[in-house]
Amino acid sequence: MLKQARKFTDNSHLSDSLKITISSVIPFLILLPYKEFTLAFTIAMGALLTSPVDIPSSFKDKIVGLLTGAIAIPFITFLLSITLGHWTFYPIFIGIIFSLSMIAVYGHRANMLSFTGLLAVCLAFAHNYDEEGILTHCLMLLLGGLLYTLVSVIFQLIRPRRYAILQTSDCLELTSKYLKYRAELWSKNANTQKIVEKQLNIQIKLNEIHQNLREYLIKNKANTGNSANNRKLLVAFSELVEIQEMAVSTNFDHQRLHELFKGHEDIIQCYQQLAFQFSETIYNIGTTLNMGDKYRTPSNLTKALEELKSKLKDFEQTTNAPTRIEAVLQFSNVIHYAESQIEKIKGLERVLLDKVFDANIEEQFKDLEKFLTPQHYRWSTLKENFNFSSIIFRHAVRLTITILIGFLIGQIFNLLNGYWILLTIVVIMRPGYGLTKQRSFERVIGTVIGGLIAFALLYFIKEVNYLAYLTVFTMIMGYWFSHTDYKVGVTFITIYVVLIFGILTPNFMDLLVYRIIDTFLGAILAFGANYLLWPSWEFLNVNKHLSNSIKANRDYIKEISIYYNEKGAVTLPYKLARKYAFIEVGNLMASFQRMIQEPKSKQKYRAELYELAVLNHTLLSSAASIGTYIQSRKTTEASKAFNSVMDYIINNLNTTSIILEELESKVPSVAAKEEFQISYLYLKEIRETELKQSLSNDLDIQEKMEESVLVIEQLMWMVKLSDKILKIAQKINFKSQINKQIQTKKVLSL
Fold it and tell me: What is the four-CA torsion angle of 589, 592, 593, 598, rounded to 10 degrees?
């Protein structure tokens, strides 16, 4: 119980919340004895506005980002305050909002800096100051930003590696879940579709964590060579990626294996228990790493594997079924997978027990920088996005117009604290409709619930000290939960905002009513703008993600074919192609999830697109299965038939991506089709011949039989998958053409 509570509280979100709260409370503790509440509040606001820029990165990037945010906040506030009421105000106001929205094209840190700047725009209208007052106000905002930077640096120095440990622990937990779902696939009546969907959802989260860890560990490379802890985490991360990719890449025909082992289900059940133990062991490693406890192995994986091998050997010796050879060869692949995973899991255990000190680690990971997504702050990047085909550009225009309308409503109707309308718009408005809709609902609900709770607290508690303690507590909770559960976060933030005003002003009830009204108005404006002003419907983007995923699979399959032909060490292009194939599959599923949050009228080709996403994931698994096999086994020379079939699969994927991009597709020549048919039949005959032969005790002959059967099995499956992917793409294209013709006729009839 205590461990669960500690795991729940000791995370990066709580740490971020504490940094904000400490930076906000310090000014009050120092200045309240001097009755300088306004200055304390302004410094706290500067700290609060700077905090979004504080994202995990190298120490240098963190400092540069925080100082940029700390300076930008008072600059924006000063510029808007001195021009308010002058004819230059509106051009400057519009220009600042649009510019801040557009810098999001430069990546996550720029996006958070944009968010910070937009919040500063909203809060610039919270008070009116004269020239001397605005200078003091801006200096206090700058001081608050610098104070937050100092607090953040102190947190970093106290626990410099905590973020990496937490991310690695989360990665272990998600990988454990992925392996658990793989184990569930071995149940006889498993709901394969539902389990695969869960796996794809985990893949999305894993892609994000992998990218975070890559950036953090590689950008802190200076520490990696000298710090045993960083070296340990780098090795652990490398092992984890390989475990997850091996799991994705090893594809089993569960239904066929159940048929082959009918009457001997204990073998499959024995393996399923071992697969669950993989998951349990990795979860236990993650918990131990997070909590800093002494590691205890939950189960003996090697013993369980030997028991499984013994059962398979008994089956081989005592069974005379005609499918015996196929069953043994198919299950040999399962055994090879289990052996590889156990080896990797033991590697993770060694890392945890501090037994990994590879002096050549720098050489081992010398190419890691190439796995980072490069981020260039070039003018050309911004210029390329200055058109309505860019999602960021459309969002920038939409957000600028919506904030302008919200500002005018506040001015025309002279609303009390009308800047809350602008804050609501900035906080909940996103480029996509689905997330904006969800956030609009959660913010309104959270504000109402939080307002009612705050009112009850102010009604029953009259002691100011108790209210102050509650304010600090709800502030911590609000910023903590805003990362994980937005509705709960908004509830607590509303409570602490109303409590502050309740302590300071007698008319807090009016403030509560106006906050709810302003939040409601802001949510309606944001929701309406996302629906009416150049909306970014996800069905318009999902084809692009699908095409990118298919291209990434195609490039990966090309690299597998090259590697099978040339042998030798695994090349960097092969590793990069594999990385992007996995990332694009995750991006595709994330795009599909966003699409299903949108109105049903905008969910075009939903069934077909989902089927394509699943088929593409399955194709990646099959391709990676061949890649993993040829890396871990000595293989024979690639035949002409192998290359011909691989070329056919690659051509199918090429044609599919061309169709999805609505370009003119090139039809394969008759000669190429004939060559594929001959090669396909030739490989099929080899497979059938091998299965009819008896098992040999010669290890070399056995390995060649495994290779010919298992590789050809995957090739045949990949051919079917690529054919099906192409047919569904053609179906979508046909429906699209019909819809266009119908729309054209409607326009002409008008």
Answer: 170
Half-sphere exposure (CA, 13 Å, Cβ side) for 639? Answer: 15
Report whether 384 contacts 508 (CB < 8 A). Answer: no
- What is the C-alpha separation between 354 and 281, in angstroms, rounded? 17
Say if residues 695 and 332 touch (Cβ distance below 8 Å).
Answer: no
Q: Which of 535, 569, 587 is the last residue of a domain?
A: 535
Report residue 91 CA to chain centroid gap: 37
DSSP string computed for 636-702: -PPPHHHHHHHHHHHHHHHHHHHHHTT-PPPPPPHHHHHHHHHHHHHHHHHHHHHHHSPP-S-HHHH
Asked if the structure places residue 381 within a domain, the reply is: no
**Token reading at 185:** 């696939």
For the chain, helix, strand, coil in percent to 5 are 80, 0, 20
Rounded Cα gap, residues 246 and 695, in angstroms: 27
Is residue 603 located within the same domain as residue 660?
Answer: yes
CA distance 238 to 218: 12
List phi, psi (to 5°) of 422: -65, -40
Structure tokens at 381: 């990047």
Rounded to 5 degrees, what angle do the CA atoms 281, 283, 583 make? 110
The C-alpha atoms of residue 259 and residue 43 are separated, in whole angstroms, by: 70
Closest among 119, 78, 112, 81 to 97, alpha carbons compared: 119
SS (H, E, C) 546-582: HHHHHHHHHHHHHHHHHHHHHCCCCCHHHHHHHHHHH
Asked whether 514 and 498 are in contact (CB, 8 A), the reply is no
At which residue do the structure tokens 């060869």 appear? 329
Burial of 223 (0-12, 13-18, 19+ CB in 10 A): middle
Element (H, E) at 704: helix 699-749
* Phi and psi angles of residue 211, each rounded to the nearest 5 degrees, phi first: -65, -40
Co-location of 284 and 217 in the same domain: yes
Q: What is the mean pLDDT of each run of 10 residues along the chain (750 residues)?
A: 54 82 92 85 92 82 90 94 90 94 84 89 82 89 95 86 80 90 87 82 80 72 53 77 78 80 86 91 85 75 88 82 76 82 84 57 50 60 80 90 93 82 86 72 83 84 82 85 80 82 68 79 88 77 82 88 78 81 79 75 75 83 77 64 80 84 50 52 52 46 54 78 86 74 63
CATH of residue 699's domain is 1.20.58
- Cα 114 from chain centroid (whole Å): 20
Residues 279 and 294 in one domain: yes
Copy the structure tokens of residue 383. 């210029």
Integer Cα distance of 100 and 96 in angstroms: 6
Q: Would you say residue 376 lies in a domain? A: no
pTM of the predicted structure, to 2 decimals: 0.77
For residue 102, which of 436, 377, 386, 435 has the smallest C-alpha distance?
Answer: 386
**Domain final residue pick, 159, 183, 218:** 159
Clarify whether residues 361 and 423 are in a common domain: no
Q: Are residues 240 and 354 in the same domain?
A: yes
Cα separation, 388 vs 383, in Å, equals 12
Give DSSP secondary structure letters for 447-493: HHHHHHHHHHHHHH---HHHHHHHHHHHHHHHHHHTTT-HHHHHHHH
* Both structure tokens of 124: 């610039």
Full DSSP string of 184-253? HTTSTT--HHHHHHHHHHHHHHHHHHHHHHHHHHHHTHHHHTT-HHHHHHHHHHHHHHHHHHHHHH----
What sign does the dihedral 143-144-145-151 (CA atoms) show? Answer: positive
